[in-house]
Design a protein that fits this description.
The protein is of the alpha/beta class and about 140 residues long. Helix content is about 25%, strand content about 20%. The protein has four helices and four strands, in the order βαβαβαβα. It has a four-stranded parallel beta sheet with strand order 2-1-3-4, with helices on both faces. The protein starts with a strand and ends in a 36-residue tail after the last helix.
């Protein structure tokens, strides 16, 4: 199994996998990153299945966050040999997860709680750090 397909979450794009992509490529894996439109779960599953169809053999399908819902649905593709969930949803019913895509982030997300020393931002002072860099103005 040399093929790995990476599926991003709902509020990001495939670029978030860049670091993982480089590491896996460095170890000799054939890696594809799905660029889902995140308009509907059905569309994202279709794009993921099209990516799977281009693989030349058994493929590990990896999903992060909302990508877990996508890989759960796309995981029945004949080339999929394993599913890997990274902090991901594994839904009971796929139709419930379309609502997740309709949530919008505020225009200036979390700016109020950015701290210069840590370079992390959070939605509240007590919440976990987000995996994004703040914009300092």
């Amino acid at each position: 199994m040399n093929n790995i397909v990476l599926v991003h979450g709902g509020f990001v794009d495939g670029a978030g996998w860049e670091g993982v992509y480089k590491i896996l490529k460095g170890h000799g894996y054939k890696v594809s990153v799905v660029q889902n439109p995140t308009i509907s779960l059905e569309d994202d599953v279709a794009v993921t299945k099209r990516t799977l169809a281009t693989q030349d053999g058994p493929t590990i399908l990896v999903g992060h966050s909302y990508g877990g819902a996508v890989i759960t649905e796309a995981g029945n593709h004949p080339k999929v040999s394993a599913l890997v969930y990274i902090a991901a949803f594994a839904p009971d019913k796929a139709s419930r997860w379309d609502r997740l895509l309709k949530i919008r982030r505020p225009a200036r997300p979390y700016r109020r709680y950015c701290r210069r020393k840590t370079a992390f931002c959070s939605s509240t002072r007590r919440s976990f750090p987000l995996l994004s860099q703040p914009t300092w103005t």
